[in-house]
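Notes continue from the previous slide.

Worked example: a multi-chain complex. Inputs as given:
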Amino acid sequence: MPANKKYLTKSPWLRLLKILAGFVGGYIVMMSFHLCLTFVFPKENVIATSFITGYILWAFLLLWAFVAENVWKVWLTYIVLSLLLLTPLLFNLSS
Amino acid sequence: MNLRRYNIYFHTHTISGIIICALLYVIFFAGSFSFFRDEISAWQKSSSYEANREVVKRDYNFLLDSLSGSYNLKGRDFSFYLKRNSFGTYVDMSTSNDTTVSKKPEVKKEGRRRGRGREKNEDSAYFTYDFAKRQTSDYTQSYDMGEFLYRLHFLAQLNQVPINIGTPFGYLVAGLVSFLFLFALITGLFLHWDKIKSNFFTFRPWNKWKTVWTDIHTALGVIGFPFQFMFAVTGVVLIVNFILLTPYSKILYKGDEAKIYQDLAYNDASTFAYTYKPLNKDFDLTRFVTDVENRWSGAEVSRVLVKNYQDENMHVIVEAKPSPKENFAGSGKLVYRVKDGKIVSEKSANTESSYIDHIKALVYHLHFGDFGGKPIRVIYFVLGVMGCVVIISGILIWLLARDKNNVPAYKRKFNFWTANIFMAVCLSMLPVTAFTFIMLKVLDNPMQSDIYHWYFYSWLVLSLYFIARRSIALTNKQSVFLSIVLCMLVPIANGIFGGNWIWVSFQADAFDILTIDILFILLSLTSLFVYLKIRKKQDKK
């Protein structure tokens, strides 16, 4: 039997928002996370590590966008997380 | 388990799976054969590397001498990219750094770059050279079935599609499929998590078809999971890593792409000044490369770069990959100044390896399965074919789960046609591959266009035939039958048209050619076994 429709998102707009949150939001969070790490570790090592961790992290962030009960919460979380992780970088650019 | 989550995993797994299944099957199928890429090349050209490894010497001096017949070599840069397990090498010859020698490059109109083709002005050259036969050929002449299947497994042939989004279309599709595959693997694992132990030992082949497919899908999926997960990740890295590298180079390197590639040791951007003074010294390149190879025992030279040929500031750079037994991760590099015979810098292939070397070695070795000789590649092949089975069973579950009376007729029609087309395209791949292998031997000196025509047209015809017959059972049965016959004909064609009967190859120690013959015999026998099982099942009914 296919999955029970009762538990799936019905509105196509909400569904689109989820897919976008997972793909785009997840990507930005993943990138920000690794960019943040470059302030602690040598950047070329972080880049090389992200070849493996980056895509896995992105896939999980994509999944979470579907699993979460409220898609707006996902968007909020991803935006706040990205901003937090990018703060050192923004400081670095302005100085 | 939380019912809501279970259904979400279920649905995302189904949707991502059905979107990618047909392309993923092509990738897995062609990829599995690509583990024997070098053997396939040797098979097609009837030129065994393994039988002649000790005999043929890579004679760079001879190549340079013969080139000097048609070019003035003074002041040029040369790059030799050696093919692995083969006597072939790609040669890239630049225009001379000496402006009195080099012709002025003609101003060409900026054309669209396609695939590997490069814009070159006429005085430079890019070609393939065979050290065993001592002859040069251009890319399309040296193109072979090994290269074809290898490139098919990352959909390079789709690059011809004129959709330009900044990156070759085929690679982008392959990358997207690979990433969705990663996603489908994760959701599949979560979906199956609660029953992972209990269902692992469940196999009910005498039950109704849907349970058979489900059991195959989950059991093989769980066994192959680590292998497939590794392939999904390394596959994305190898094909669309620009997704990560572009923002890194924009943000961390201020857009300097050359710098990031140098930091990651992909490319060497160092330049050597041209002095306009001739080099008053003879230099034996062949011997030098052999010496370097002996310096790092077991290592294989992968690249030889010659800078400023015959100038006082001539340099030679040799790069080598260590034998995985000596050093799993590592890369050797030696820079040598010819004038005073000084080694400017050396990074041994066997002892030193950086963190980046480790990561890259992990990605490459795991993906190519080249760290343990033929046994590892055979295991990889079997696991790859298992991946194909998981995909096929997935399509069938998808169809059977929706083939019910409460599903509206138009939806059932759509579902059937989707599965019908997917199955026709996927299952005709094995007979078509075997057929093309036979044609390679029948044709005299097949080139790139021949391989394209025979493979893609026969694939199209057979798929259309199966689609038109509108029966998945028939597709299955007939494609298996064709596979028995055509796979068995592959070694026979090799004997009749190439003279390489199995026993001849065996006696000549041409084990690479033999590998392909035996592979197809085994595929034929497996198909026979499957065919007999199908017949038995039918007779019972």
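Summary box: DSSP finds three helices and no strands in chain A. The mean pLDDT of chain A is 89.
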